[in-house]
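Example for tutorial group B:
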């Protein structure tokens, strides 16, 4: 990807003097990241090789609506604030989309409310209802307490809900965000897979995501999102050969149901990690602020050496 060359250079320079490192971060962020200025957690002085704890959340916010179908994004902000996450992947995010979310910019409002940086990746980007008004957008977002170094909105196969007689074709909405977690560069991806009973499009989407993530294979990677499929769904099998399911690593065969929020009977929301990241725990908090419950995973990454890991021995 276009991001790759830039990040390779950045990774190779990660041991330079602290002042130069901060200058490079500023240049990259200004050039590539659409983010909201926020009170970002300071980069602590942690020696190379030290472990850094990281809390990650996946949450489908249903365009700001709760189980009661009432729009209340402030309720969702309070729910997320209580989770005290470092990185959050949100799905079903409206940005000036329509009346259901009061034409508000939910990505920015939630990020501001939590004091985090944000990268919003629209799936749909439509003309405004009138000249001079913001464009109508709907998609996914990644929020971070740590500095965002770079970001990209990748296309994957989708079956549009906005046109008659859609056919599977590439469309945006698969963000990749590189976060500087106290010196450890982590690639974070967020996704919302097709909801239909026929798994065909999800199979295509999984293949697309693996191709994109494979461009940075060996680096620290986290994939979160609403997969709209249970863990044993055949279309997810190729994914489990590449990443680990944080819930399963932490809790084994415990169900961890996340949907529907008021009486959950299935697990379709996930935090997944590459082998270079340790899972310490995972839980699904009870909340009715959306029709999904959030998934929370407590992880550990190691500061320093941002080069790809060597390939596994055959």
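The residue assignment follows.
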């Amino acid at each position: 990807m276009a991001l790759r060359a830039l990040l390779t250079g950045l990774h190779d320079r990660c041991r330079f003097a602290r002042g130069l490192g901060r200058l490079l971060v500023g240049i990259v962020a200004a050039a590539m990241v659409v983010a909201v200025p926020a009170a970002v957690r300071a980069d602590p002085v942690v020696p190379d090789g030290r472990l850094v704890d990281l809390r990650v959340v996946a949450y489908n916010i249903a365009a700001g609506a709760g189980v009661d179908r009432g729009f209340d994004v402030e309720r969702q902000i309070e729910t997320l604030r209580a989770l005290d996450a470092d990185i959050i992947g949100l799905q079903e995010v409206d940005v000036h989309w329509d009346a259901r979310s009061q034409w508000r910019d939910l990505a920015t409002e939630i990020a501001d409310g939590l004091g985090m940086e944000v990268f919003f990746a629209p799936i749909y980007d439509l003309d405004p209802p009138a000249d001079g008004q913001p464009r109508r957008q709907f998609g996914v977002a990644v929020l971070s307490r740590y500095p965002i170094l770079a970001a990209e909105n990748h296309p994957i196969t989708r079956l549009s809900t906005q046109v008659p007689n859609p056919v599977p074709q590439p469309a945006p909405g698969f963000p990749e965000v590189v976060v500087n977690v106290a010196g450890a560069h982590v690639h974070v991806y967020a996704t919302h897979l097709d909801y239909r009973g026929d798994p065909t499009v999800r199979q295509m989407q999984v293949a697309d995501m693996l191709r994109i993530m494979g461009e940075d294979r060996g680096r620290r990677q986290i994939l979160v999102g609403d997969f709209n499929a249970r863990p044993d769904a055949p279309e997810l099998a190729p994914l489990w050969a590449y990443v680990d399911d944080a819930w399963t690593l932490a809790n084994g065969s415990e169900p961890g149901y996340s949907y529907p929020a008021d009486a959950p009977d299935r697990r379709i929301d996930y935090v997944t990690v590459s082998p270079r990241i340790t899972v310490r725990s995972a839980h699904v908090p009870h909340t009715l602020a959306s029709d999904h419950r959030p998934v929370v995973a407590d992880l550990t990454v190691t500061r320093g050496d941002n080069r790809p890991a060597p390939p596994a021995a055959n």
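The chain has seven helices and twelve strands. Compare this with the pattern of hydrophobic and polar residues in the output above.
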